[in-house]
Every structure is written in C-alpha cells, then in structure tokens.
Amino acid sequence: MKALSVRNLPDDVYEVLKTMAATNHRSMQEQVRCLIEREARLATGPGLAEARAWRMRLAGRNLGDTVEDVRQDRAR
Q: Has residue 48 been placed in a domain?
C-alpha cells in the first residue's frame, strides 16, 4: 500500500479535518483516507459518466419549473 504526505496544509483545513475525524470517531489518518477514497470513487465511478450522458441527452430541453408546478397544484 502506498503512503502519502501532505505538506503546507492550512491551519483552518487541519482543524476542520480534526473536527470531522472526532465527529466520525476516526483518527485523522482514517478520516483523510476515507475522504480521498470517496473522491477517487466519485471521479472514476460510473456515476460521473452517467451524469454526463444525461446532461447531453437533456441539453436544450425546456424542463419547466417543478417548484412552480407544485405551487400551482397546491393552490387548486
């Protein structure tokens, strides 16, 4: 397994990570690993490609305002 060292991390970012780790009952190392793994899965997973495909399919369509439709329906 590979190791990674992060230099010059701003103090405010470090404090947020520390709080997140405590909230999730994890060590700092576990919290950072969890965040990196999640981002890597999102960046390479099929979800991103699927979202792009849907955006291309729906491009240029007038989908209307769903919130306004619900308001009008409730007003009846």
A: yes
Is residue 32 situated within a structural domain? yes
The DSSP-derived string for the chain is: -------S--HHHHHHHHHHHHHTT--HHHHHHHHHHHHHHHHHSHHHHHHHHHHHHHTT-----HHHHHHHHHH-
Indicate whether this model's pTM tops 0.85: no
Q: How far apart are CA 12 and CA 10, in angstroms?
A: 6
> Could you tell me the residue range of the domain that residue 57 belongs to?
11-75
Residue with tokens 């291309």: 56
pLDDT(7) > 80: yes
Name the domain count of the chain. 1
